[in-house]
Queue: 3 jobs
Job 1
Amino acid sequence: MTVIRTVAPDRGSRGSFTYAGFANLMRQFLLTLQCPDKIGLVYAVAEYLLNHRCNITDNRQFGDPLSGRFFMRIHFESTESSTNLEILRSGFRQIATEHDMQWRIDDPATKTRTLIMVSRHGHCLTDLLYRVSTGSLKIEVPVIVSNHTDMARLADWYGIRYEHIPTSKASKRHSEDRLLELIEEHSIELVVLARYMQILSDEVCRRLEGKAINIHHSFLPGFKGARPYQQAFDRGVKLIGATAHYITPELDEGPIIEQAVVRVDHTLGVQELATVGEDVESMTLAKAVRWHAEHRVHLNGGRTVVFR
């Protein structure tokens, strides 16, 4: 028999709700926006939320004097049972139009539908899937795409569809058409290149602008091509790093989301350097994906604004 127990909200000694009990009744929302910077933007947004009886719990904002753009991320809550995304979005459109805003209002509990691409190096994929399984990375992964079959067993273990799309110079167009079909089929919002060792066409890069994240070792462009860790070892590097960025038609030159480095020395061999590098790559990519999924990243021309 299943027993359903109802629990009354916490009350103070005089019968009033405590904040802890009250907070449990609140609906959570997330507003992100960017627009030309000018006087009155913060007031306009705050007034709108006040009129809808919403309480701001976290606010991050930045006015860029170089681009003249204003960026904002507001986490807010409402106790009005009738308040929902449709009402909030409908009412905000007038303000957004008046101030030429690019904006969105989301439910922060909604997971970003993500397609992960991988080749034969599985460290980043393994790390991402583990974080998803523990709930620390709030994305939903309905499909993994690879030009090899090496990671199929890992995908099967997590119960995720694995789409093997062999890629060659002759089949590149067909392979990318299939990728775009999968993105459409699964309503994908984010593509993650977790060491996917193929160059996407300019057309696909443009279609995925701001919606596809790549990871690479920060030896680029100093150590391009095959065996970068062997090249780094031969040059006696003292720092190993990784860069996570949005993809663009310009190879490995998209807007940077996150970078990390770790110091190494002469005692490490090639394989040890590679192991350290893989750890840095996995951690850096995971941060970039999490920040994107939490709507913390804004494109600002060739740069990004990241509200950590």
Job 2
Amino acid sequence: MKNKNEKLGMRDVFFEKLYTIFQNDPNACFITADNGAPTLDKFATDFKDRYFTVGIAEQQMIGMAAGLALEGKKVYCYAIMPFITQRVFEQIRVDVCGHNLPVTMLGIGAGLAYDIMGITHHTLEDVSIMRTLPNLTIWSPSDSTAVDSIVKDSHDLQTPQYIRFDRMGVPEIYADNNFSIEGDLTEIVKGKDVAIVTTGIMANNALKTAEQLKRKGLDVGVIDVVKIKPLNTAKLLSILNNYKAVVTLEEGVLAGGLGSLVLETMSDSNNYKPTKRFGIDDSFVFENGGREHIWDLYEINEKNLSKKIHEWHTDTIC
């Protein structure tokens, strides 16, 4: 059990608030695929007729969720992230998104959160894959405060959703720095030279990078994208208009990811800015040594980013 002064992780903040929603919504149901959590125990106890576990059968879970949703239920499905996106992609596409059903996929372990578990448990492709699905909303909160801000909105939304949770130990961006989260995307730090557009745990790396670049004379802002799809394009473009250049940062593959989305958005609006993407470039990650070690190898930590962005800005913008 956690003491009252210990912060809950993303997943547990969501489940704590969802419990209250379940108390007031008799149509809310929960299905888990061989995954538990202390914060889920009271769901199993207090909502026995609305809490189901299917074991290691994620495809069955999505089919079951679709059936419940067709009968008027609001369904939440929970599993480790690669198993609730890639393993069940066809079922989500056809059964859930094809019928535009109120089923929310909750994935734990964004990006390299399961660092030592290898490529079976890494989730570097999920944004690229899932954003191709019509009707699907994608949430990618950066910390527990961001998670808390989306629970009610995600419950009110009666369409398919996918929510990306990191694991324990993610730094608090908003509560610890007195930043105010502003809906689907937030300009955490304002600047004028370079905007770093990011999501999830990389928001923390972006803030550290902005601080290092400030010492090198660059005025760098940070934009945290909490809702990846549908992206608030008008708000993003309005913010980017105040910058000379754009950098995107993600703990995922570059092909089709957040950086691609930002470039598509600028291209479709004929609103071009010099842009540089940082992430995992067409590679599986077989290296061990922990998450921060992998960040260093793939140059997505603040030390490498500040160097790379400064060089790029000097060569391209100046």
Job 3
Amino acid sequence: MSFKITAAFTEQYTQNVEHLVQQGDCRFGGKLREESQKGKSKFWEQIGATTAIKRTSRHGDTPRVDSDHQRRACYLGDWDWSDLVDSLDNTKMLIDPKSSYAQSAAMAFTRAKDQEIIAAATGTSYADVDGSGAVSAVVLPSTQKVAVNLGGANVGLTLAKMVKAKSILGKNEVPKGTKLYLAHTQQQLDDLLNNVTEVKSSDYAAVKALHDGEVPYYMGMEFIKLELLTLSAATDIRTCFAYAKPGLLLSIGQESMGRVSERDDKNYATQVYNNMSIGATRMQEKMVVEVPCDESP
């Protein structure tokens, strides 16, 4: 056989594009308050709890109760995405990547929504509390945080942490029937299953079903799994959180909008472009509970 026959070997390529594994949907979609917004900022009016005054005499003065008025602010942030297909590339490829680029952009924007929501859940929110126009920063108080070392040492997600998170929401008088959620990663499911030691217990059976994806609910909360939650490189602690649906807001100025156009300034390359304008905020501190989980072995 000739040693030069290798020159006749051929290479085969598919005409389809396969997307590498990635989160392709918005995991918080439909699981929080969603509203539209026009303008760079928008304020929502709020009123706090008041106390009734017990009458102690006849014909006494009418008591005055000063209501606690507050405002919660949300600010839009703009997102962009684009890629180019050179006009000469079409003659060198068996595929047309433009539709695949558009799909890739769409998936990137769904993750961007989740990133905005995650940042708002346990980050700084803003409120105009006195009507003067001065915006006040509002952080999540320590009373809304479960200790990472609940039980004595830093641990991952445990039943005790879930009980504590739900207890905080319950003590805050979150209205009965309000949907509750827990945002977590796969590691927390693994830890939760490993921390339930009684194989015959009902808890183990429920967590096992949750871990295997058979049910999305446990302990009155719907589990939201996504790998975008903040992980500290220094401490290996993941910031998970539980929340009631009205406690988080996604405000949409413009949904993801795509365009495919020719760029004469780029040698007539075809540009696939998407943009979006969204904002997110924590509406009520008492409806969000931070649940830090140690991911160290």
